[in-house]
Amino acid sequence: MNDIGAPNNVEHLLLSYYAMERLQDLVDQEVSTNGQVDLWPEHWDDAGAIVVWKCLDCDRLYLNAKSKKEDVVVYKIERKGIE
Ligand SMILES: [Zn+2]
Hints:
A four-stranded antiparallel β-sheet has the order 1-2-3-4, with no helix packed on it. It has helices at residues 17-34, 40-47; strands at 11-14, 50-54, 61-63, 73-75. By secondary structure, the chain is α+β, with helices and mostly antiparallel strands.
């Protein structure tokens, strides 16, 4: 599994609604300052977006995929559907 090449189908960003609002504020500030947005990667980080890799073979999710190896959290499917 790798994230070589962008865009790709492995790497995702997980955003809470709070982080999404923060992202919107950061972008709005930049647009009003210089009329253009060119710092998207920094905005994702500053907003609190979490980098998630999804394995295309087994659907496991790797949260904080860009962190140190020992800090990455791995989720695997327990079941599909809720009752
Ligand atoms: Zn896998």
